[in-house]
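Request from the bench team (R.T.):
"We need a structural guess for the complex before ordering more zinc ion. Sequence and SMILES attached. Just send the tokens back."

Command: build protein-zinc ion structure.
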Amino acid sequence: MLVLKNARLIDGTGKAPSGDATIVVEVNKINAITTQNTADFPADAEIVNCAGLTVLPGLIDCHDHMANHRYDLAHRWGIDEPESTRHLRTAAVLRQTLEGGYTMIREAGGLDAGFKRAIEEGLTTGPRLILSISIISPIGGIGDRMAPSGDCCCLPGDPLLPNGVAETPGDVRPVVRKMVRAGADVIKCATTGGASSRPGHGPRDSAFNLDEMQALVDESHALGRRVMCHALGGRGLDIAIEAGVDSIEHGCYLDQNPRHLERMAERGIVFVPTLLVYEYHRKSPQPHVRERAQDLYEHHILAIRKALELGVKVVAGTDAGGHGHPANAGELHCLVEAGMTPMQAIQAGTQWAAECCGKEAELGTVEKGKLADLVVVRGDPLADIAMLRDAKNIALVIKDGAIAANRMAAPR
Ligand SMILES: [Zn+2]
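Reply to R.T.: structure attached below.
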């Protein structure tokens, strides 16, 4: 038994914090939450005094690329370092992400299922992983690896990361099945270019037609997988919403068609804006990337504000990877700057994020019966959400009832 005593509790439901909470963890579940300090605990219970500290649900990032570490072509194609070095680099990022208070990551492409297995076997540590394996797109889409020279990537593909290019409309369903065979828990696809994609395939240039996307969504749902769709604007964004994807990733120009957010609210489609990556792209040395990121910025902020007004769930995702792996909680800070309250930003990274992942029955809030993924922090994230970015403020991380990182003794 693990007992967190005298804590200030922000439970992830949006409810005002409660003081002097005691949270009792048995095996891997939250067994009780009480404000009475009188209970007796067994002699072998591990009691953690959380006086002056705040307990939150384990944080969740709904869009991350754990195995990507830079945007340049040599890195994207995997020729800049030995594969073993890259795998160990990825393992270090997984460990640091967990130690930063992130107990679950929804992977947006590039991480193979071996990492999940290694974490489950205890070979290495990391968050719970919801895998997408490779991004599915048509020829010319963001998953199609072509250099500015016109050369296509000629390296043998990694069998654990099947090629996500659907070459013909008839390839869409088999490609979905290949991702599931390789371990995908969610299907990641793209119906537009992005800020960092090649010149000529920008945020409002589309990929896939409606028939293809309907087939993709139908096949994914038939196999019990949700669809997370990279879509920034233009016709590709229309198609993604029309086809009924489960979440729109980036969604930068959702402000441009008033029907888009209304339909997302009606259908329960989640919005994962990934603001943090565009901070990086706005300063990109590549002019076409910088211009795209600057152009979309005001639309993106407006889209978030309208989404909140209409009741569309806005959840936290960093799109980390190409831009390195800054603290994932930087996204929560961006969401507050975009107009969320700090409490909403916490929900975007806990309760609402768990809903986006389909894990709300077991994770995302501190409630009796849920899995014990918890983070104990120094300071008040409601007063200063940015404090969550600083690892020294993350005092204790509990995943599945076990202590995964402990900085309780560190000087304040
Ligand atoms: Zn991404």
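Two things stood out. The longest strand covers residues 18-26. The CA atoms of residues 74 and 119 lie 28 Å apart.
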